[in-house]
Amino acid sequence: MTQDNDSGQGLREALKTVAVALKESDIPFALTGGYALWARGGPEPDHDVDFVVAEDDAARAYELLERRDLKVVHPPEDWLFKVYVEDSMVDVLFQANGVPVTREVLAEVEQIEVESVMMPVLSATVLMGHRLNALEEHACDFGRQLPVARAVREQVDWDEVRDVTAANPYAVAFLFLLERLGVIEPSGRSGS
Stretch 46-67: mean pLDDT, rounded? Predict the structure, then answer.
């Protein structure tokens, strides 16, 4: 889905605002989710921006962003908080697929220029693992996943994604579809 210029511009401004605030602190963080995949060549998302911080740093990150006069709220979910920059939403996650984010995970990022701001971005392999592990019975739209996988396929260690998603039947089915469509090599032969 292509977003209109106003919402896309708002999300990109929110991305930069939160990234710069986090960069000016000593809190390790990384861009994740759809905008991290966009930074790596995927389609631009149309809903929100996602960052991750270590679970141990979540309270400090919340306070830091609140001191920046940003609207920061705790939603009912207990694995993230939300930051609003005008009408655009940024999720700051401290768990991914039910697993607490650690500082060690955040040490393995790549610095990428995103909208003229250098920031840490999770690897395409980690991002695709998170994305596919989020597939479930009520959120299983392969049509939205396919353009993303095609766009970043050469940056992903697909055997590692297979390993981290092996317990998710929806992810396994999607990986099988990618093989059948010739997007990725069958198991054991993918490049990374």
Answer: 96
